[in-house]
Amino acid sequence: MAVLFLCIRMSAYLEKCVMYIFFFWTLWISGVRIFEDVSNPKSGKGILVKAVGVVDANADTVFEIVLSLDRNKRYEWDTITGDLEMLDSVNGHYDVVYGTFNPRYLSWWQTKRDFIFSRRWFRGQDGTYTILQFPCEHKKRPSRSGYERTIINPSTWEISNLSTYSSSNAARCLVTQMLEISPRGWLKWRNNRSQKFEKTVPYALLSQVAGLKEYVGANPAFTSVSSTTFVQSKISHASSSSSEFEDAEVPDEFYDAISADSSSEDEDDEDDMEVNKDKKIKLKNVSWAIASLALKRTSAPDINKELNLHEPPISLEPSQFYGSMRRAKNEGDTNCWSSPDGTGFMIRGKTYLKDNTKVKGGEPLLKLIAVDWFKVDNPATKVAMYPKSLIQTDAGKKLPFVLVINLEVPAKPNYSLVLYYAADRPVNNNSLLGKFANGTDLFRDSRFKLIPSIAEGYWMVKRAVGTKACKLGKAVTCKYLRQDNFLEIDIDIGSSSVARSVIGLVLGYITSIVVDLAIVIEAQEEEELPEYILGTVRLNRLQLESAVRLEV
Asked: Where is the START domain (predicted)?
C-alpha cells in the first residue's frame, strides 16, 4: 500500500514538474533532494532549482539560524557563506551583507572569493518565514585586492512548521531553498548527468539545506519546543499525514517537496489553528487523488442569499463609469485592468469546517466597473467623498451598492489604487455581505480577506507575494467608511513593515508582472459556507508614471 500511495504522490507532482531521474542518485545529500522546476520555462530569467529537507526544529529556531551572522556557529553548517558581516540594515526586515570565502573549504576553487547580497525577510500569518536573497553592490565594499568578486545566485528560503501528531510532540519544519541558475550553464551540467554541477556555486548553495539539517540534528537544544516562540503549523497538504507513514521519513520528505509550491491550498489565517489543533486529518480528503477532485469544483455566490432579487437589476455597462486607469482591450494589453473569473483562487468549500476542503472560486458576486490609479503626496483616505469621485457622479449615485477598495501604496510619491465593485441589486441585510457592509469594524477586520497571485512575472516576486489568503484586518490598518450606497475600505499597506517590504519589491518589477487579486468575506460558520469571490481584478504590467494626481 505504501508503494501505491507513493505512486499517487509522484503522478500528481509530475503534472507540474518534470524531474530527471539522475537527481535522485547524484543530487541527494544527507536526506535532502534537489529538484529542477520546468513547469513554466518562460516564466523567469533562468532555470529554477530547489533543495528540500525536513529539519527537526521549529520554524522560529531555523529562521534565526539562517539569518544569524555569528561566524563560529554559521561555519558549522554553511561553509560557502559562513563568513558574513553586516553592511546595512533597514526597518528590521532588510539588510545587506558582505562575505568572503576561503578556497580550503571547496578544493575546486583556487582563489579567494568575496560577494555581496541583500536579504529581505518576512513572516506570514501562518508562521511561515520567507527570505529573499539578491546579489548587489555596496559602496562600503568595492572590489578587494586578492579576492575575486563572485555573483551569488538569486535565491529564497522558505521555512514552515509541520504538524506533529506523535507522542513526543517534537517540532519539525520544512525548509525549501530555491535559486536561479543561468540556462546556458545548467544545460551543460544536466547533459553531463550533473557531474560538473557538483563543483559549482549553485550546488554549494543548495547543500546549505543538508548542512542545516545535520547541524540542527547534532544539537539537541534546537529540537526543544519553546512555548514563547513556537508557532503551530496549519493543517495543509504539506503537513497532513497518516499515522501509517509517521515514521516513513523519505516518503514524507518527498510529499513535502511536492506540496511546497501549492500554497494556494494552505490554511489562510491563524484562526484555523484554534479550530483544527485537535484534529488528525488522514491525508487530507483521504488521499492526494481524492483531494485533487476538489480542485475541479467551483464555488459560485448564492445570489438569492446575498442580493434582493425582488428588485429589478440595473445596467452596469462599463461605458457609464470612468476611472483613470484604462480597461484592457485584450489579454496582451498593458498598463490596464481587467476582471478575471475566480477559478484561479482557492476558497473554503461547503464542508470546510469538517475536512478543510477548498475549491476554486466562481464568478464574482460584484462587478468591477472602474479603477483609479492616483499619485498623492500623503496617503489618501475617504476618496469616495471627493467631488470628482465616481461615487459622486449621477451614474454612481444610482448604483444600489458599491464596495470601494482603496489600496494605499507607500512609495515616493505615494499611490492609491482604487477599485469600484458594484451590485446590480440591493444587498440583503441578513446576508454575509449585508452584515459586513453594515456591521462593526471589529467584525469587518475579522472577515475581510485578500487573495493575491502573480499570474505572470519574475519568480522571486511570485515567491514573495504567494497565493495565500491574507486577513487584512490583522495584517495592516484598515479604515471603513459606510455612507449612502457605498462602503469604502482604506487599506494602509505602509502600516506594516512586512507589507511595505513586499510591496516595495513588487513596485520594482511592476512593469513586467501581471497581478491578480480577489476579495473575499471569510465564512466562519456552517451556514455561511461555501465562500464566494466578492470581486477580482487583474493589473497588467502597470506604469507608475501613468498615475494621475488626485484632485481634492
From this structure: 28-208
